[in-house]
Every structure is written in structure tokens, then in C-alpha cells.
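I am still getting used to C-alpha cells and would like to learn alongside you. Please make up or recall a protein chain and show it to me in full. Would you write everything just below, so we can both look at the same thing?
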Amino acid sequence: MLEHFKVPIDDQVLVAEESLHRTVTEFFVKMGETPEDANIAADTLVNADLRGVESHGVSNMLRHYHTQYKNKEITAHANWKIVREKQGTANINADRGLVIIIGHHAMQIAIDKAKQVGIGAVTVYNSGHSGAIGHHAMQAVKK
């Protein structure tokens, strides 16, 4: 990881995963996300930190998201929708929502399509930050 993403040892504060997850979920609810989507966002950020991807975890991304919500650069509770769809594919207009949330939904659509026809490929556009995108790919491993 690049040095500028690392938190200096003197500044590090260790927090229990459950407590961090709860706090991050509450942040996203206060920004206007539904409790379900706030939980998805918290999963994405906290798991990035737990996997050692601090560049896309809580300490490096939350302040940016706060600024983007405040400046209306991203949409809370985005009205995302599938705009094109075939048996094995879909294209989602994210309505400027964060892909750390919408990516979860897109991946679930891809998984469902793959179960039905053998392949599922879903693309997302008009979105906010994608975050640690590998988090969503891991959903397929769990299914």
C-alpha cells in the first residue's frame, strides 16, 4: 500500500469490529441512506480495513463521502434502476449513488442471472465512488 494511505502508528486507534460497523452504519443513515443500504456500505468499508485495504476503508474514505454527500456530489438513497437487461446481462444507472452500496445489489443481480443462465454480467454507470470493488466480487464466492 502507498505510504500516504497508511495511518501513522501514533495516530492509530484500534476499535472492535462490531463497534466500528455500528458507527459507520449510523453515519450512512445520517447521510440519508436506508438502514439496509447503510449496513451494506459499512460492510464494504469495514471489510476493506479487515482485509488490509486501508486505502478504501473507513479511515480513508468516510471523510470523503461526508464531503461528497454535503456537496451533493453523490446521491443518498439513490433511485438506481436497470436501464438495459438481457438474460445474462444488465446495465444499471446508479443515479449518482455510491457503488459501495449499489455494487452489492448489482452483484446480487449478476449472481441470480448466473444461476439461471450460466453467466451474469452487470455494469454500473452514473455513480459515485466504487470503493474496494473486490468486496462485491466476494459475494459470488459466498453463494
